[in-house]
Design brief:
Layout lengths: L3 H11 L16 E8 L2 E8 L3 H19 L7 H6 L6 E2 L1 H17 L9 H6 L12 H8 L7 E4 L2 E4 L11 H15 L5 E5 L2 E5 L8 E6 L10 E7 L2 E7 L4 E4 L2 E4 L14 E9 L11 H15 L1 H10 L5 E6 L3 E5 L6 E3 L6 E5 L1
Parallel strand pairs: 15-17
Antiparallel strand pairs: 1-2, 2-6, 3-5, 4-5, 6-7, 7-10, 8-9, 9-16, 10-13, 11-12, 13-14, 14-15
Helix pairs in contact: 2-7, 4-8, 7-8, 8-9
The chain binds adenosine monophosphate and magnesium ion (MG).
Length: 358
Amino acid sequence: MKRFAAAALAALMAAGLSGCGWQTVDPDEARESIQVIAMDTVMIFTTYGEKSTHADYLSEDEVRRLESLLSRTDSESVVSQLNNAGGLGISVGEEVGGLLAAAEEYSLATGGAFDITIAPVVSAWGFTEEENRVPSQEELDGLLALVGPEHVTLDADAAALTPGTQIDLGGIAKGYASDRVAEILKENNIPRATISLGGNVLAWGDRPDGTPWRVGIQDPQNADRADAYAGMLKLENAFAVTSGGYQRFFEADGRTYHHIIDPATGYPADSGLTSVTVVADCDWDEVDGRPGVGTMCDALSTALFVMGEEKALDFWRSGVYDFDLVLVTEDGRVVVTDGIANEFEASEESGYSYEVVS
Ligand code: AMP
Ligand code: MG
């Protein structure tokens, strides 16, 4: 079940473009906003500056190019060619090779919580073709035997999979797309923008009035209400990427099954979290169009959702990567790491209790 309308509205509100947000826009400054449906989500590119229209359409072209390169459901894509190569090595090109290397790094760093070889399990639950069903434990056990980063062999721009292994870049592709869009913004001297790729938001620069962008964190318990927030982030030059079971799910036999799979069990992750938002700085000097901070945030939001509160906070404290977190728990708490506490605003009417952790 997808929530396009709610997602679009939430993104608009997050960008401060609805209601009173209008008054802050400098009328002398060129501004363009386009909506694009790609990678199974609603995207909104809102850019400012002389080349805003140009940057928006370049961004759209880039996202569509990436979709045709990385989509699992497009039989022509490089990912499909690799999935269908029957275990033979094929040339995937430098770009996909780089993304596979990044995916392997995050898989190893998160103890396998992030794993692109989860693809056949995602399909068994029917999330690839949107024909949802509950697979048997026997079926899942068979598929899990072919899950793990050791089933992907990478040699520069050539890759091979163990026969039967398949990859799904759905947990990282939008983050990579946001890194690519950041490169377009930089090349076109875009001073400020909000880029929303579903749950992946890039707050570029600040608002025209010099204040930070406001990025809402959807309340997972009220995912069908675009105005229901678990909190608000005030961000400048930052990525904020949210993973949550509420973003795609189905119901069967009175239970809810969502799309983020725990590679340890083959079942939708049941870690006590309802959403994870990973926030990290987007340093303009470091934007170079390669898998970067946007890709990292996307991989980690998926992984930490699988890991659950305790392991996610341990991982954050380990300092392996530089990021902050907003966790929303099933038992009604919102946990914010101290690096982002000053940029976080609680949502009084949400009913959540709020904690800052260090
Ligand atoms: P995200 O919305 O970024 O958290 O990504 C979720 C998507 O990533 C799912 O729809 C699947 O396509 C894929 N996926 C599900 N579970 C995992 C996992 N444990 N590791 C990597 N990708 C996953
Ligand atoms: Mg992700």
